[in-house]
Amino acid sequence: MITINPIELSGNWAQGYALDIHTIDSTFIGYDEYGHEVFDTKRSEIGELLYRLKYKSDKTAIDEILDTVVDFLENRWKIINAIYTLIHVPPSKNRAFQPVIEITKSLSLRLKIPFHDDVLVKTRETPELKDVYAYEKRMELLKNAFDVESKLWKKYFAIR
């Protein structure tokens, strides 16, 4: 099991967490033979797994990510019995392999909790946010970018 440092997130919800920061440090070290910038990047353990999955298409990272998420939900946050369904935030970039969707589907199977990928919909294109560090700028770029499909919301999330 990897080490994580959960960070409580504030927003228009009851409670939320990020499991850790992604990048600890990134130092510019020069250019490669193609003229692309090269960085010496140090990531958290979960950040390294997510990097491998997203940018190296290393699907072997999924199981360790899932182990970490399940352990956090069951033993630290202790919210596992209050989860009725899983949804994901639609990705900003179209890829043949979508890591966020694969993690959500896999988590759904592992926890035996329904997964719905049609409830939160994108209303307009958004840029990738990996290089946008200012919270206010991120919020500006994401403003009105998503909507809840209300018919599906009512169907999937009726009061139990």
Would you mind describing this structure in some detail?
This protein is α+β, with helices and mostly antiparallel strands and 160 residues long. It folds into 2 domains: 1-82, no CATH class; 83-160, no CATH class. The protein is built from 5 helices and 6 strands, in the order E-E-E-E-H-H-H-E-H-E-H. It has helices spanning 45-56, 61-76, 99-111, 135-142, 150-156, and strands spanning 7-9, 16-18, 23-31, 37-43, 120-122, 146-148. Strands 1-2 form a two-stranded antiparallel sheet. Strands 3-4 form a two-stranded antiparallel ribbon. It has a two-stranded antiparallel sheet with strand order 5-6. Strand 3 and strand 4 form a beta hairpin. Helix 1 (45-56) packs antiparallel against helix 2 (61-76) and helix 2 crosses helix 3 (99-111). The model has no long low-confidence stretch (mean pLDDT 90).
The number of E-state strands comes to 6
Give the oligomeric state.
single chain
Return residue spans where pLDDT drops below 50 for at least 5 consecutive residues: none
Query: Globular, elongated, flat, extended or rod-shaped: what is the shape?
Result: globular
Number of domains: 2
Overall pLDDT:
90
Supply the number of helical segments: 5
Helix content bin: 25-40%
Straight-line N-to-C gap: 34 Å
Q: Write the element-wise H/E pattern from the N-terminal end onward.
A: EEEEHHHEHEH
Secondary structure class reads: alpha+beta
The percent range for strand residues is: 15-25%
Strand order of the largest sheet: 1-2
Rg (C-alpha, Å): 17 Å
- What can be said about the biggest beta sheet? 2 strands, antiparallel
